[in-house]
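Mods, move this if it's the wrong board.
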Amino acid sequence: MSFFDFWSSTKERGALLRRANQLRLNPSQLTLLLGDNKIRAALQDDSMVSLLPPVGTEVFRHFTTASQEVQQQHVTGAKERKTWKNKWVTQKNLPKPAAHLETGKSLPLIYGDLPPQLLNTPLEDLDPFYQSRKTFMVLSKGNIINRFSADSSCYLLSPFNPLRTLAIKTLLHPFFSIFILLAILGFGVLEFKFPVVKYVYMAIFVFEALVKVVAGGFCVGRFTFLRDPWNWLDIIIISTLLVSQFVDLGKFAVLMTISLLLKIFTCSRGLKKTVEALVQSVKRLYCVIILTLFCLSILAMIGLQLFMGTLKNKCVIWSMNTNTTEFDFHNHTTSPENYYYIPGHPDPLVCGNQSDAECCPDGFTCVKAGSNPNFGYTSYDSFFWSLMSLFRLMMHDFWEGLMQLTLRTAGKSYLIVFLFVFFPGCFFLLSLILAVVVMTRAEQEETRDAEAIQREEEFGRIVEVLKRREEEEQASSRAETPEQQDSLQKKKSAGIRATKQEYVEEAEEHHRPLCCTCTDAFLKGDCCGCWRWLKQQFHTFITNPFFDLVIIICIIVSTIFTAMEHYPMMVEFMETLVIAELVFRVIFAAEMIIKLVALGLHGYFQVRWHIFDFILVIISLVQLGLADVEGLSLLHSFLPFRVFRLARWWPMLHMFLKIVWASVGNLTLVLFITVFMFSVAGVQLFQSDYKANVCRISHDCQLPRWHMEDFFHTFMLVFRVLCGLCLESLWDCMEVSNDGMCVTFFMIVLIVGKLLILHLFLNLLFINVQLVDSEDKTTNILQSTMKQTRTWIPKRIWTLWGKNYADQDHKGDTEKDNKEEYLALSSVSSDQLTLDDNHTNMAAWEAPVAVAEIEFRTPENAEEKETQHCDVMQKRKDETHPEPEDCCCNSCYICCPFLEIDTSQGTGRVWSNFRRACLCIVQHKYFEGFIVFIILLSCAALVFEDIYLGHRPVLQRVLKMADLVFTFVFLVEMLLKWIAFGFKKYFTSFWCWLDFLILDVSLFSLMGNMLGYTSRPLRALRTLRVPSRFKGMRVVLKVLAVTLPSMFSMLLVILVIWLVFSVIGVNLFAGKFSYCYNETSEELFSFYVVNNKTECFSLMDQNFSEVNWKTWTFNFDNVGMGFLSLLIMGTSSGWMDIMYAAVDSRQVEDQPHYEINVYMYLYFICFIIIGCFFTLNLFIRVIIDTIHQQRHKFGGKHVFVTDQQQKYLSTIKKRFSEKRNKTVPQPQNCCLAWLFDLVTALYFEIFMVVVIFFNMVVLMVETDDQSEEKSLVLNWIHLILVAIFLVEFILKIIALRQHYFRNVLHIVDFVVLTLSIIGLFLADILEKYFVSPSLFSVMRLGRLFTLCGAFPHIRFARRIWMLIMGFVMSLPALFNIGLLFFLIVYTFSIIGMFNFAYVKHEMMIDDMFNFKTFGNSIISMTMITTSSGWDGLLSPIMNTPPDCDLQLPEPGNCANPTVGIVFFSSYILLFCLLVIHLFIVVILELFNTASPEDAEMLSDDHLQMFYETWRRFDPSGSQVIQYSELADFCDGLQDPLRIPKPNTIKLTHLNLPLFPGDQISCLDVLRTITTQAFDEPAEVDALKAKLDEIVRIHSQVSRESTTTSPAQEETDMIQKHVQGGDAEQMVVQAVGRELQ
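Not the wrong board. Structure tokens:
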């Protein structure tokens, strides 16, 4: 099942599950099923046992002693039937419990209603699986299935003991679970206030455990106390409570806390099932976990070998007394006061001794000394710390800081390692993890669907048999007339009783009390005739389409007025906003009153949207009446929620709200409880450590913002970890507490939390939330209303003028218009929404393309049209003399007849030949290649136009001349295409239009340069020519273009959501993000010194030049800045600075105070959850659905690859579906044959794998501070390992001969061995003149990739191989997106270099990360590719005087803030979009690779090898051999069919049928051996299908055999059969001829 099949079946899957859960038989059918033995016999034949009720007249029967005796008989009989021979068959084909009757599930409706007296009573089990097990069933409230062991509990209490019965009733009573839940929740509160409470809770939990033990038993038998892992929590809780009375457990007491909170899940069956499903899904992740650890280890060793010890390089002041004997170099270099520090940074500046590394200031020298940055925790000095750094890189946790440190010390050239090793490796792991989780979710859904389909089919069979039986009974009863009369009389009497009941109900209604009648009349609005008349008038008014349109306009306009609030505002403007808000409040209040009158209270509150409107109106009126009351000003923040009323008419917004509402469920509750549990555990583990050791992480011994000293801050820290930012908090924790405990705690929180969030995200992504029902005629109510209103308004205007209005757009549709003119604008219900119809109006544009160009968009009408068009284009290219088309369109020839000339003679003929020659030129591949070369050359020339170009006059002149040449070449190209294709053909191509516009820009740029105007930024548009020449980029751009309409609709919804948060942010924080700043000390004044803006300005008036009143760069002073701040919060790690400013804010223009407003954290939590998490879910949902539609247009073809790449993928898939390596023939020479057997033996391969792993361990144990003795030992070990690999190479090259280099893995071994030898003997020379010897150590890791060749042969590793192959299959699509990725980075680097080269060094812009040169610019843009830290680059660009200087030498260090905002916002949005498509590509290919139809394990090479070996034992071609020769034959086969000697026992278990004379058949041996070789279920099925196909084609007759193999004679358990000799020979000979 492909991903899109799974995606498109969401709606059908939901309907299927609903149908399966509602299957039910009526009482008559159930009675017939129980009482008719013929029906049961028919259904028993159809294997419907799992769905049938037990035999008897009742479905539910008490569990009695007789039941226990019958059960014991079943158990005894089952034991007797088991023998040593069929034990394996029993284990393999073991019967399974019925899925619909599992413990904890509700009883299916098919079994009828449970009598109330049987509730919580032992019953006989309905599942046939448990009828031979010692169990019984108890149904609790809600018909929940519970099972208990039928053995005596603790060998004392039988199932019929009153005490055990009481325990069962107590355990299953709902109040018991509620009591335990309240006890758990109250324990944490009461424990700290009343220590004596521990004894009470110990008694409670002991009592609960005793009840469970008495009810089900302790450990012997099924469903006992210890058989349920959830009950182990009780043991942990009781044990820790008991031990804590005698010993202080300290931090180990957290075990009891975690167990106590985990017990919450057991109090709710829904939560319990959700957690169990999550655990089962995690079990299926073993393959990706192993692969992740393996790949991360490889990346960590690469980092260890390349950057070990480099982060210790620091700028140390060089003392003048270094030549004296008293100078202590070690003390000097390890003293922190001798290091160079950048102001505001706690760590010293790191540096490097490479030419492109960070340089030290004058007076300082770069020396390796001291510890590593970030308390010594950021380094590559050992395998563990390197692994932590790579894990940090993979999780995108402040990874830009790691890359900055690495490039500063190692050099900018090592950016290549990040771009081509670290980033792809981390993406590979993340994409595989995501894809496997999605596949696991899909597998669970498919399993559940299969169970539902099976249950539905079985139910349908039962109903069919019952109906047939009923028809037979009716046919037999038609002859009995008296019975028919009796039944007719019964029906009449039943009708009379029903009529009497109606009369009684009507009489009761007439005799209701007066108060009830008045209340009902009041609620429905039927008080009097006048009121009913008024209600009718108002109802007509509100159902008019113009009324709803006015309300929509009022909502939009009121939202606009609300968004116009800003700081500071003029008094007049503020008064205008107050008046406007008052007007809108009156309008919405009047709307509410009118609807209340028109619909009545009962009708009004039946609609949920009316309730929402009512709440908003009441809040607005309350806020208006209590505007001056302090503390109620927050009610003003609820007014922006009016915009959500548009969801009634806006399907996309309605779907978003439904997604948010759908998140309220068991999985969300599990996530919340998990976060709460981690918060409580964090407080218990680290609270005392933060109090005692705070001075280690803070100079003023004040707790940092992120700590675990109290519950609220711990909760915020856990939330931050779940957001992916845990590193800085982990460093603090490791400083104040134990390193191992901190790493364990944070890793568990991160991994468990991320998995829960990912499952919640997928649960919302695959939930059945649609926009508009496909069968609903009113697909877009808002458009219908606008259409009707557009007709209604002109009619009223023409009526006022006294004229008749005729709608020209609706002639001929008068009847339809009359029906639809006064349709009401109703609310959108959940069942009126679907996603598909929302995209029906997405008009994707297309344009004809020039002959030399490739079409940008595929025509929508049919795929055949595209094929015909491509065929025509190909024919034109293949023609020797192509004919050009008309130059202009037909209208041009009509308007200007002189344009049409005769091309058969004279000048017209010359012109036609000239056009034909130009057409041949532009269609020639060399011309296209030359143009591509010029385009790439013109793009490369932009690299040199940096700020230093003015100091290089020669280069400047060369670039000017090159610019002229490029423009001339492109001009000539355009003219040639104009002549060859004509204007009509040229200007119908999108790419030709793009080339034309870019050329125009170049020409205007040249003219501007001649006139003295600068136009450097326009040159960056040259790179836009590149996509038109690369098919891969065009394919990706085509997909993006097709998804644009749906993305715009979705982005509009996201903007509305963010608008609400932005307006709320303006209401909460406008004017509060300012502060008084001391420029000298570079810190804020304390609010005790400066309280507000007035006092700060008073200091400034007193000539304190260092005092300045500033505002944070990113704030909420207006909605625009609010949007920018929210964008940073949603995409960058800089959201914490904004949050800090909000938490420290007091009042408008007040000096901030540290965490004075701590609960403002909740605002940011709400935005991250709603504004980021849910909107991202909607974003991906729309993208996947649009790609699904586009893929469907192409007939299922992958939309991210070209046709050639698609063929390449098909070839690769076919090649990997077969056996990867053909068998190497064994040499004839005996010595070479012995050597061949040695190098191909399993133990030899195992030995080499052990040596490779040992080589890996040797590389892992290297550290930066290792001793000389350790280094010497490791060098000798390395020398020995190289010798071993050299011996392996010599042996294999001798044994395998030329076949050695047919294997790619052997070539890798050879290259690694060669480089290792070169590194041993030429290390010093290479280090001095060429490259670092650490690169050769990295190359030693190449042998680890040879281990991948063993994955297909290892059973548990085949799924890992499937993941790797899935990623390999996605590489062409990833390459296409990656090309566009690189083009965007290149283009934005050029634009950044042209616009921000002179920006002031501040925040993240410094001497290395800036836009001065192309190298620095591309490093800066690469750093923000994951949207991390881009606020640090934007902040200096946002500076305005006096924070930057315009008076510096031209052009100053100020930039345009608007350009900066557009630049970074567009870059971040583009990359977010492309990254999402990257992950989608990997998921799609992994789904396709995991499909069982992809692989065909038995190839023709295997059959050919088998038949050639058989001919050596059967030279006469009789197709049979003696059974005694079977051992030699199986040993003579080649892998994977070979069974090496000694093989007697294995051959005995093959159970081959024997022919007379102890002979065995060729086809029997082939079937048996191949089935054993391919032992995976999917592979066996494919193998059997292939063999059956061979037999089906060639087999004509068969007969039975007479004897069996020795194993069959000994056991005598399998039925004797023989297949015919002559027919067998015919079949095998036919197969042999086919292979030959």
